[in-house]
Every structure is written in C-alpha cells, then in structure tokens.
Design brief:
With 390 residues, the protein is an alpha/beta fold. 51% of the residues lie in helices and 10% in strands. The chain has an eight-stranded mixed sheet with strand order 3-2-1-4-5-6-7-8. Helix 4 links the parallel strand 4 and strand 5. The termini are far apart.
Length: 390
C-alpha cells in the first residue's frame, strides 16, 4: 500500500496540531520550519500533549510511539518532494506565502495538492503565485487543530473541483467536520462571527455596559460558553484584531466590519490576552478583575443587540452564496461552539423581530453598519404574509 505523505509548513501551534492530527490517522508527516528552536518546541509540545492523553487513559504508550515516529522535522524544503498534499500554516503575510508556494512548486510533483491554512487572506491571490493554481485551495483549521472539529474547505476561482473533493475527503478521513466556503473575506466563521466581537466592543465603547457585564450577559442569558471579551483574550487580541482589520480592508471598508479603537490600542500595547498575561482581563497571579453588574434588563438589551447582528450576518452569508445554510449552521456550532445555529435561532425568535431590531438600530445610528440583509427582509415579509392569512 502506497504511503500517505503530508507536508506541513510551519511548526507553530497550528502546524504542530495539524501534524499530530494526521499522524494519529496513520499519515507520514514532514514538518518544515527554518527555526530549529521552534521545531524543538513543537516536538516537545506534541509529546507532552500525548502524554497527558495517556495519563487520562485515552491513548496507549504504543500509540504515542507510533504517532511520534510518523512525524519528521526538517529545515530543508526538498524533504517535501514525495508529499501528496502540503498544508502551509505560517505567518499571515500574503507576500511571504506567495514566495513560499512559488518555491514549493519546484520541489513537489504536479499531482501534489497545495493548501493554505489562512484564516482571512484571499486564496485566489495566494494561488496566483503558482504555475498550477488549479491544484491550490484553502484548508482552514481552527485552533487547536487536532481538537477542534471544524475545517473550512475553500476553493478559489481557479481550484479544480476534483482537487477540492479529494482534499475534503482527506480531511474527512482525519475525523473532521468539513464545510465548503466561498473564497471571500473571513470565509464562514471569521465573517459571520465578526459582530460577536465588534458589536460587543461597540456597546462597551458607547459606555452602555462594562466588559464583565457584557460577558456575563452573553453567557448567562445567551448560553454561550465564553463571552466576547473572554474569547478575544483566549484567541489572542493580536490574532483577533488582525483578522478584523483584514476583513474590513478586503470588504472595501464596509462599516459593518469596522474595527474598534479599543482593541487596536490593546494590540498596540501588547495586551494580547491570556498568552501575554493581560488583555481585557488581568491574568497575573493574584490579580483581581471587576465583577459583572448582573442587571437582567441590561443583559437582555446586550444579548439581543449582539444576537441580532450575528443573525443578520448569517442570513446575509446565505443570501450572498458564501456557503449553504446547513454549512453555516455547522460552522458556527462546530467552529466557535455557539449554543445553537444562528438560522435556527432566527426561526425561534422570528425574522420579523430580528428585522425590527435591525431597523431600530439603523434609525438610531443612521449608519450603514446596521443595514438589514435583503434576505432577512424577504423572510420577515413571508412570515407576515402567512400571519395575515391566519
């Protein structure tokens, strides 16, 4: 039986997670990184993670041996020559990615599938550096890659549909839940989820509620596992801000995706969240953080405003053909652990009420940020037409 070779470029958290995932499913891996210190860190991190699983009784010592033996580390790009698929997971810099793939094409076979793990950059733009852009696509994992179930499969206008199907089949065989997304800024999750952070920041910037209260409302009343500020600190404010900025720029500065100066200042000051010890909250040992004001009336206002914006964004994504309704529901529940699909939530609340909320926001602020999706209007009208007949 022919060996299955995967090349992973970048041995950071994402790259090492992808390598561990594929090795667990019997693939042979070459992890490429020019930094030997980073390689040592990745090797140690994978091993310690597997040891923790063994302690919990979820994996055997023999399985750990098999997985670690399947992962080879290298600083030489020629080691990727026999790979059937290569996934890049390096810095989100389009010029660096283009240079990398142009070099990679001279190493791998013409049959090798090339993929980027970019979360917000144009797949078509990166593929333009390739002589064979038809074998190039986006395979976007969520962090940590070996744990989070969702993977977005993103075809550019040049991607061969057969290549996309093969790539999706490979990722499915690794036990992942895959969804197909259009090559547009943010794909599904990073587009639809923008109001979760952006509208929370807007509410804070306006002085309507403080950070702990907004997080409390979203968790206590909305059933989310983490509040928006907790989640931004967990993801990293450097990462979250850069994705927001990229989506805003790529949508020609559409005010719906406008970043907050509050987050920009945190980014500029190095307050990245948990990993830096300080973000919206202080994570230093013994640090005290302010308590939430558990005002249920205020909490409902916060929840309804953020949820309205999320639902409107999800509906607009369906309307614009970013993905199917089913894949959008899967993406938001599997990718960011929302308590329920946003379209199902709309059905529960009523499209007419969501539209009314959007129109109230639009009248109050007089900003294009709060424009209702045309599809939301159509959904509300259909419900009204049915109600008129009852």
């Amino acid at each position: 039986m022919k060996k299955k070779f995967l090349g992973v470029i970048g041995s950071g958290t994402m790259g090492s997670g992808i390598a561990q995932l594929a090795a667990t499913h019997n693939w042979d891996i070459v992890v490429l990184d020019k930094d030997p210190t980073q390689i040592k860190t990745a090797e140690s991190k994978i091993y310690s993670g597997l040891e923790k699983l063994k302690e919990k009784g979820k994996i055997t010592a023999e399985a750990i041996e098999n997985i670690t033996q399947k992962i080879k580390y290298s600083q030489d790009i020629s080691e990727l020559a026999d790979c059937s698929i290569v996934i890049e997971a390096i810095i989100e810099d389009i010029s660096i990615k283009k240079k990398l793939f142009a070099e990679l094409e001279s190493v791998v076979s013409k049959e090798c599938i090339l993929a980027t793990n970019t979360s917000s950059l144009s797949v078509a733009s990166i593929s333009a550096a390739c002589k064979l852009p038809e074998r190039f696509l986006g395979i976007h994992f969520f962090n940590p890659a070996h744990i989070m179930p969702l993977v977005e499969i993103v075809s550019s206008i040049s991607t061969d549909s057969a290549i996309a199907k093969t790539a999706r089949g490979i990722v499915d065989s690794w036990g992942k839940c895959t969804v197909e997304a259009k090559d547009t800024p943010g794909f599904i999750v990073n587009r639809v989820a923008r109001p979760f952070y952006g509208e929370a920041l807007r509410i804070y910037d306006e002085g309507i509620a403080d950070i702990p209260t907004i997080d409390w409302a979203i968790k206590e009343l909305g059933g989310f596992r983490m509040g928006p500020f907790e989640l931004m600190d967990f993801i990293g404010n450097d990462v979250n801000y850069k994705v927001t900025e990229a989506v805003f720029e790529q949508f020609y500065y559409d005010p719906r995706y406008k970043p907050s100066l509050t987050q920009k200042r945190l980014f500029e000051s190095g307050r990245f969240g948990r990993k830096s010890g300080r973000g919206y909250y202080n994570y230093a040992e013994g640090a005290s953080n302010p308590e939430a004001k558990k005002d249920f009336k205020l909490g409902e206002i916060i929840l309804h405003r953020i949820l309205t914006m999320l639902i409107n964004e999800a509906i607009d994504a369906v309307y614009l053909g970013i993905a199917s309704a089913q894949d959008i529901e899967l993406a938001m529940t599997k990718g960011v652990n929302y308590p329920k699909g946003l379209l199902a939530w709309c059905e529960e609340i009523g499209a007419d009420r969501i539209l009314e909320n959007m129109q109230n926001l639009s009248r109050t602020y007089q900003e294009d940020r709060y424009r209702p999706s045309l599809m939301l209007k159509e959904m509300a009208q259909k419900k009204s037409a049915i109600a008129d007949r009852l």
